[in-house]
Amino acid sequence: MVLRVNDEHSGPGRIGTARSHPESGRRRIDISFESHDDRLVSLGLINGLLLVGTLGLYSAWAKTEVRRKLWSFTRINGEPLEYTGTGRELFLGLIIVFSLVIVPVFLGGVAVSLMIPGSAQALTGYQFIIYTLFLFLFGVATYRAKRYRLSRSQWRGIRGALTGSSTGYGWTYFWTLAVPAIVITALALAAAWLTGPNIGGTILLGGLIAALWILPWRANKLQQIATTATHFGSQPLTYTGTSRPLYARYLYAWAGSAVILLASILVTLHLAVDSGALETWRTTKQFPAFSSLLRLALVWLTALALCAIITAWYRASQMRHFAHHTHIDTASFRSTVTGAGLAWLSFTNWTLRVGALLTGITTGGVLIYLTGAMPKSDDTDLSRFTIATLDVLFLVVPIVVLTTMATTFAQFRTARYTVSRLSLDGPVDFDAILQSQNSAPRRGEGLAQMFDIDGF
């Protein structure tokens, strides 16, 4: 199948805003995001109600509907992208991963507990192995999710494809984090053995902070692997970026995040000692009071919010860098996202989600109060069960519906922001592009769903 472009007449082959290039077959590309005031809030409402009605089983179909909308809003030379994936594919992928990963991991934990009863060391060792495996599988899931989405994305009949090995990508994802962590931990243990736990702990903390310096190089390497394996039909993408230009901006993000991390640790230690929570844990092995846990949670939520704001400028520069060094034919992508815009987008999306959650909880509490669905001392067991069921429904329904609406709207805002600031500079020879001959995956990205990778 050859993609043909007609400039001078109307009909299915016409690209409305295409501009001709003197070379035969070459056309310039315009990328836009056109939602026509549809911000997916109503879709979020419908998906939320269906999620409640199906006890969450509709999630695969809900994600598919959101993708179809967002893909259709994305226009290339005025014509929409098309998403051809189905909810059934995503659901089957999740079921298979649940059967092949989650169930064996659970049964393995049970087996360790039965074979070596009462051994905390054995269970800890098993958990370490599982966490290590999951770090590898997270990389595999990321790659397989991209492969599935590209295979189900098409423009004018030509679909995308991702070749290469998901296990190879997963291994790179794994070792670029695991090797620095292993080296730092080994040095810290050696220092603790030779000089004492205080020096070892200091080396471990300092080493982990220093290890963050590898992240731009790691991100660039993973981007290179994924981009060079990406195709639009028979046309491969190329990537020419290096990590060196990323470090100038990363220095500020790294230093700011390190300061926030150290300050949060010091504040946490101060609160734990001042409230007596640390002493309580040492002597009774009991968790501290809820108020103490709430203060600690607020400290780290604030720290994460500050880190997200500080690193927004680096993340924006990374997005621009990746786009600028990604090429198709003779054209190069270009992104104009900014740190301020990305920080505002992250903050407002987070506010939307938190606000929806709090509103859902408040609404549920009001419904319980207004309906009088509160247990009484003289209620029978059946009455208590009925009232408890109503209480759960009054809480769960508004929380699920409102958070689904907020999440869907946040996904729309993210897609609109990133796509509307993306462009392609230079012509592409459409006449040379054939349909991809790579086989498409038959099922959805079950691993990605298990790890909750990607907003959409």
General description of the model:
With 456 residues, the protein is α+β, with helices and mostly antiparallel strands. 65% of the residues lie in helices and 10% in strands. It has 13 helices and 14 strands. The strands form 3 sheets. It has an 8-stranded antiparallel beta sheet. A 3-stranded antiparallel beta sheet has the order 1-2-14, with no helix packed on it. Strands 3-4-5 form a 3-stranded antiparallel beta sheet. A hairpin with a 2-residue loop joins strand 7 (153-155) and strand 8. Helix 8 (247-274) packs antiparallel against helix 10 and helix 11 runs antiparallel to helix 12 (381-420). The longest helix is centred in the last third of the chain and has 40 residues, at 381-420. It is globular, with a radius of gyration of 26 Å.
